[in-house]
User: Which sequence fits this backbone?
């Protein structure tokens, strides 16, 4: 099976300062040799701290910004060779949802116009059928069809994020890039959007690239995870494998830092000392060595390769084999008491999801 | 032990808008925190948790906000105290850490100037002594090479460092009460762990009371002793932290706990709380959560429920509590 999307050695350096003649003199190495793939219908999560390059990667794979080097293949064809027309056609297959639903919807367009625009741009639905299609899209994301006449400011944050999802779905994409789609939302709204994304994936066979810094959310939604630090992927694995035994010290630090809703949760907490180094001048050797508790001399000079074992679990660390076992790293939240489990279940049962059965996107 | 350090009775905050509408931001809130205890104030956007903290600090504008009730702190009534008394208290015996360290530090003064100003205002003494103390404070919050960093401007520091500076400033005069409003929300998870560790350290080293305001139940579980859950301006549940997470007694708390993705097992669907927070210009009569509650009954709409103890120290504003009865 070929992957839906393959990225190979992506590089993106942003000029940080220029000399008198406009020539760049310093670069922010936002993405520095990143390779990954996404299969049809699966979710790949990109996780890491602010500035690790995860959002830049998500924009590179859509060619919203152009990479300096590397290759991107979508369904086997080279994306970087596409001309403007072909690129527009590709955008029908891949869409993006942004973090801030207050900034990503045009305040001067009605919801109907926002959802109708991609249909018109790609010539998908005849003008006469657009209204019906917009209403269908609204129902798909759990909103009422009559909302098509309203403006974005009339909606709450969660509803706006549903509109943004509907806009992405309008062109029937195969891949949706979700860039921190729930970070700006309250806990109870966040769970609605996560449920919606998962329902849509199952019904429509969508693939997601899910960019997030929230590891509990990633554990919930992703099939595979790539952990990024300062422009490089330091570990990639199936979600279950990563959370069961993280290999890279950076992944371990991230996972051990997750606050869990359980007082006195047991964990071997690994608190990183020091600050995140700047991507303007990343450390030589392993980019994590300034904060790594397991650092040895070799880490300071030689950059480790991302090495996979037979199961596809890969880590870029010289000392993978020598690190202590990672059993207690991920905090255990111990689960709910049986009574609480039933109360929570009662909560979900009494209100079945907003997406009514029988509404589906018809694939053309 | 003597009475609580801070005791809030029937706190209400009304905002009078320009258009003649009145918003009930905080309604009949009773809270108390003992010396050395950490209280978590939890809730979603707009539930009134930040307004409660601003009312304690006396930071709400007298023109637009009408604050009633009583806030007794260490022998003072903060609501009736005059401005001069409040200025002496703030930054001295009561200190606050805000969410966004960049907007709460003054960009045109060095961090040293800002910490020294607090010390000189409340403690007096020489500038040199205040500077020594500021360096010691920066060291205490683990800022590397504090004798150099003290002369830097806020923009030179990273987000995590700025939050440490904010904490150092709040600690400048050894406050009896520290209010932290979403202190880690703007930070990455690794920095959040550092700051939470720092807060635990400070808690162990001093006898200060802490009110931690957050929307993150994970953070509450890590640092708090007691929790108060707020919804639509009211406290709907209050309990010791272990008790709240083991056996929540308000449907809203149950919904919140169910909606968090969990690390231990992978649920197909998370619990959701359908509907929206009521409009607080005209809060509904009866239980304010009724419209979103799966266990709602006629009696919930008839009368406003009171915050009643279900077991010693565990109070819920739900007439159906204890909720275990619903399961039979």
Assistant:
């Amino acid at each position: 099976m070929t992957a839906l999307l393959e990225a190979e050695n992506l590089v993106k350096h942003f000029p940080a300062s220029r000399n008198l003649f406009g020539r760049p003199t310093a670069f922010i190495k936002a993405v520095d040799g990143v390779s990954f793939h996404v299969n049809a219908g699966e979710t790949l999560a990109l996780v890491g701290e602010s500035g690790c390059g995860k959002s830049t990667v998500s924009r590179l794979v859509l060619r919203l910004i152009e990479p300096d080097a590397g290759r991107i293949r979508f369904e086997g064809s080279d994306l970087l060779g596409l001309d403007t027309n072909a690129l527009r056609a590709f955008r029908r297959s891949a869409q993006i949802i942004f973090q801030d639903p207050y900034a990503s919807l045009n305040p001067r367009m009605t919801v109907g116009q926002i959802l109708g625009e991609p249909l018109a741009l790609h010539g998908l639905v005849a003008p006469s059928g657009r209204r019906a299609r917009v209403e269908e899209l609204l129902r798909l994301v759990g909103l009422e069809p009559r909302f098509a006449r309203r403006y974005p400011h009339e909606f709450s944050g969660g509803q706006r994020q549903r509109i943004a999802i509907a806009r992405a779905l309008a062109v029937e994409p195969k891949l949706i890039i979700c860039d921190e789609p729930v970070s700006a939302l309250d806990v109870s709204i966040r769970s609605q959007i996560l449920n919606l994304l998962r329902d849509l994936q199952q019904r429509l066979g969508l693939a997601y690239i899910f960019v997030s810094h929230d590891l509990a959310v990633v554990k919930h939604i992703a099939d595979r995870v790539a952990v990024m630090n300062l422009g490089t992927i330091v570990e990639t694995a199936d979600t279950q494998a990563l959370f069961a035994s993280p290999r890279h010290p950076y992944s371990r630090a991230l996972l051990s830092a997750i606050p869990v809703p359980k007082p006195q949760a047991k964990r071997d907490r690994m608190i990183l000392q020091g600050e995140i180094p700047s991507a303007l001048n990343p450390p030589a050797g392993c980019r994590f060595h300034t904060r790594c508790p397991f650092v040895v001399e070799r880490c300071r000079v030689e950059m480790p390769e991302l090495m996979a074992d037979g199961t596809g679990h890969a880590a870029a660390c010289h000392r993978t084999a020598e690190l202590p076992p990672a059993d207690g790293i991920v905090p255990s939240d111990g689960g709910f008491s049986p009574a609480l489990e039933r109360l929570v279940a009662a909560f979900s049962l009494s209100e079945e999801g907003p997406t009514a059965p029988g509404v589906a996107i018809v694939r053309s | 032990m003597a009475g609580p350090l801070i005791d809030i009775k029937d706190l209400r905050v009304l905002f009078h808008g320009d258009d003649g509408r009145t918003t009930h931001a905080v309604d009949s809130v009773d809270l108390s925190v003992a010396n050395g205890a950490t209280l978590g104030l939890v809730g979603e956007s707009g539930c009134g948790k930040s307004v409660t903290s601003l009312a304690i600090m006396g930071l709400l504008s007298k023109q637009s906000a009408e604050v009633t009730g009583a806030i007794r702190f260490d022998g003072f009534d903060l609501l009736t105290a005059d401005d001069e008394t409040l200025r002496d208290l703030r930054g001295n015996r009561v200190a606050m850490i805000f969410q966004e360290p960049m907007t709460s530090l003054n960009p045109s003064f060095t961090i040293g100037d800002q910490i020294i100003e607090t010390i000189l205002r409340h403690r007096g003494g020489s500038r040199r002594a205040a500077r020594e103390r500021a360096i010691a404070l920066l060291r205490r919050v683990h800022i590397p090479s504090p004798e150099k960093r003290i002369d830097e401007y806020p923009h030179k520091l990273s987000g995590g460092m700025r939050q440490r500076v904010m904490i150092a400033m709040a600690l400048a005069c050894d406050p009896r009460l520290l209010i932290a409003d979403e202190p880690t929300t703007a930070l990455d998870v690794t920095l959040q762990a550092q700051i939470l560790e720092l807060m635990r350290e400070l808690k162990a080293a001093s006898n200060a009371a802490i009110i931690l305001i957050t929307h993150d139940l994970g953070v509450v579980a890590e640092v708090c002793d007691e929790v108060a859950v707020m919804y639509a301006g009211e406290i709907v549940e209050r309990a010791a932290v272990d008790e709240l997470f083991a056996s929540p007694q308000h449907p809203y708390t149950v919904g919140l706990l169910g909606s968090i993705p969990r690390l231990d097992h992978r649920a197909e669907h998370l619990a959701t709380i359908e509907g929206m927070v009521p409009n607080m210009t005209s809060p509904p009569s009866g239980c304010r959560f009724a419209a979103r509650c799966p266990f709602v009954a006629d009696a919930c709409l008839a009368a406003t429920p009171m915050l009643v103890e279900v077991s010693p120290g565990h109070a819920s504003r739900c007439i159906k509590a204890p909720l275990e009865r619903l399961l039979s």
In short: Chain B has a mean pLDDT of 90.
